[in-house]
Design a protein that fits this description.
There is one protein chain. The protein has three helices and five strands; from the N terminus they run H-E-H-H-E-E-E-E. The protein is an alpha/beta fold. It folds into two domains: 30 residues; 79 residues, no CATH class. A hairpin with a 2-residue loop joins strand 2 and strand 3. The longest helix is centred in the first third of the chain and has 26 residues. The protein is elongated, with a radius of gyration of 23 Å.
């Protein structure tokens, strides 16, 4: 069989060395998989879709660092309860959020005549 690993010669190992080698390889692969998941699939902070950014601009809604922190806190609380598509109301602004992606889908000012569909959870927060 041809050794396809470049710059790494094949080294014969006895049973105990092979067991340690195999355990180390499995550990590295597990850590690597976890790192990849954390780096690529689980966002660290809330983000905004292009649609949400457009709506924020059109509706003159300002999102500062405190609001982002409150949104992240709300998203974490909803995620613990298993929410996936949620309505989060902070003060007088409603955010529709994809919880697994930590992404705000749209935002609008609260009013009496809004209908929201396709959500599985809601969190109302006030300062």
């Amino acid at each position: 069989m041809i050794n396809r690993i470049v710059n790494q010669p094949a080294v014969p190992v006895n049973g105990s060395e092979q067991n340690m080698f195999t355990q180390e390889l499995v550990r590295k692969r597990q850590n690597s998989f976890i790192d990849i998941l954390q780096d690529n699939m689980i966002p660290d902070e809330v983000s905004f879709s292009a649609h949400a950014l457009s709506r924020l601009h059109q509706r003159n809604i300002v999102v500062n660092d405190q609001i982002k922190a409150n949104l992240e806190n709300a998203i974490d609380k909803i995620a613990i309860k298993g929410g996936r598509e949620s309505l989060i109301m902070l003060d007088e602004v409603v955010y529709l959020v994809s919880i697994p992606n930590k992404k705000v889908i749209t935002a609008l000012e609260a009013s009496d005549e809004n209908v929201f569909t396709n959500i599985d959870s809601a969190l109302l927060m006030t300062n």
